[in-house]
Amino acid sequence: MQVRFVALALGILFLLLGLAGFVPALMLIPGGATPDAPLNMPNLTFSDGYGYLFGLFPTNYLHNAVRIAVGVLGIASYTSFGGAILYTRGFAITYILIALMGLLPITNTTFGVMPLYGNNVWFNLLAAGIAAYFGFFKPVDPIETGTPSVG
Fold first, then answer.
1. Among 63, 118, 120, 122, fewest CB within 10 Å belongs to which?
2. Phi, psi of 86, rounded to the nearest 5 degrees
3. What is the mean pLDDT of residues 83-101?
4. Is 18 within 8 Å of 65 (Cβ atoms)?
5. Rounded Cα–Cα distance for residues 112 and 115 (Å)
């Protein structure tokens, strides 16, 4: 049951983060969002809804939509053990790659579409680590898989 609850928890977390990104009261608009942005701030070609969620996580409307989709998939995967394993493994691999993209200047904005830099890097690595542990490394109870135990 643990892997199913991890998929559910990740799904709920990402769904709530995605929805929160559309709430203006939870967004901090950075001073660099204007045309006179500092040179060290990455440029986004898709800047609709650009801001910092809770003042910490750079995001925009597309990033919020992706988080909602990832959240809905996590919640849906809770319905079966196989779905939860597939979700946590896919999540782990994808979010490790996304975190690495956030460290590289050429890809830290997903080629100008979504911000992956800043606090998103450690958050994505933490979430990917949790998913990887439960998806790949945590021993599975035979009751979860539906296979009879020997002995």
1. 122
2. -60, -45
3. 96
4. yes
5. 8
Query: Any idea what the Cα angle at residue 84 is, between residues 82 and 86, rounded to 5°?
Result: 70
What is the separation of C-alpha 131 from the centre of its chain, rounded to a whole number of angstroms? 11
Rounded (5°) CA angle 140-95-56: 120
Rounded to 5 degrees, φ, ψ at 27 are: -105, 140
Q: How many CB atoms within 10 Å of residue 63?
A: 25
Q: Are 95 and 127 in contact (CB under 8 A)?
A: yes
CA atoms within 13 A on the CB side of 59: 29
Average pLDDT rounded to a whole number, residues 72-83: 96
Task: Tell me the backbone φ, ψ of residue 26, rounded to 5 degrees.
Answer: -95, 0
SS3 percent helix, strand, coil of the chain, rounded to 5, is 60, 5, 35
Helices 81-103 & 2-20 angle (0-180, nearest 10): 50
Q: Any residues with CB less than 8 A from the CB of 131 and at least 6 apart, and which?
A: 6, 10, 87, 88, 89, 91, 92, 95
